[in-house]
Amino acid sequence: MSRSITTKLVLAFLLVGLIVIGLAAAFIWGTTSLEFNRYLQDQRQTAFATAAKAYFEQNNTWDGVETALQQQGVIAPPPQPGGNQPPPFALVDTNRVVIIPSGPYLRGQIVPVGTPGQEISLQVNGSIVGTILSSGQPMIKNPVEQQYLNRINLALLIAALGGTLIALILGILLARTLTRPVNELTSATRAMAHGDLEQQVPVRSKDELGELAVSFNQMSSDLARANQSRRQMTADIAHDLRTPLTVIGGYAESMRDGVLKPTPERFDAIHTEVQHLQRLVEDLRTLSQADAKELSLNREPVPPSALLERMAQSYRPLAAKQEISLKIETEPGLPDLLADPDRLAQVFGNLISNSLHHTPQGGEIVLFARGEDKNIILGVQDSGSGIPPELLQHIFERFRRGEPSRQDGGSGLGLAIAKAIVELHGGSISAQNNTGKGTTVFIKFSK
Asked: Which pTM does this prediction carry?
């Protein structure tokens, strides 16, 4: 396929070059021939007029003028081939009688005044003694003149052939320049089709092909990252399912075999693991709905202060149990958000739970809301351990945990769900480590 494109491009460039060169050569040849013929005509006309006028000045008559001009070489006898041919001019006297014939003007013919054609009057001592008429006959060149024109035509032919060769070489080089990135992209896509998603092609220019290469590299990186995330997600889901199922299966098998007696405590342990499985399944369902754009929102006006107060009331008992201060800071006069309050509560529930898990005793969690330009900023700030810098930009990815040891027992989907809900509202979410210690998560909505 690439060879076919290269061949087509080379032929296209060559064809364009040939057309341009052909048109230029034809124009130059036509202009050169026209101007050369005009030059010869003017030159011969001047020589003819000068010789005829000089003859009349010397003899004061036109008798014998044709023979005299033939002897001077200005004109040649009609039977004589080659050499100086009769010019395309006729000479008439003051009575408009043809003295020297040419073309349609015959000897002795009277040419009426106003006959179409160019006329040049011959004056001697201020009086018109004759008139030169253009007969419209083609200009016949002598061998020297024809040789000069042939050399010009040969030079044009050589220039045209040279231009064609240059057009062919440039066409080949340009075609290879254009098809090389296409060939590289083709090879890379074939490798991706065979499962090797991590492909990068060199960016050789800043034009459309360069932009295509940059987009391809970005797509390849995103696909490779998504594939790695998919594999990691599959492994994490298997891990999260295995642990509670192992516990449930172990208790059930032991009680069935009579090794353990059914007790309320053991049923509570089984119930706890079942709830963990239900939360995991619900989180996965929420994310699948977000991916399919099927996550519904019941929007209504939501005052930011009321939302934060609701969340603080829900989590203050747990914060007090861990000896963590939970505060609210809201800027007065903020407009209501047109949002789904239950979904936003789900977002803040995930954020506050993470902060409670990573904030030590005596620490502080602040729920805040403020205006910034044309935006409303909501967020959660804690004084916990913070997030490792290398993980900060990945915490909103699925199954991404700030602690690789997975000691928190979470599904790793909470922040991914929070991101999906916020973006579904048309907002954005981000996180940064505080200057002192802890982390702040920002949620930005347009007013």
From this structure: 0.52
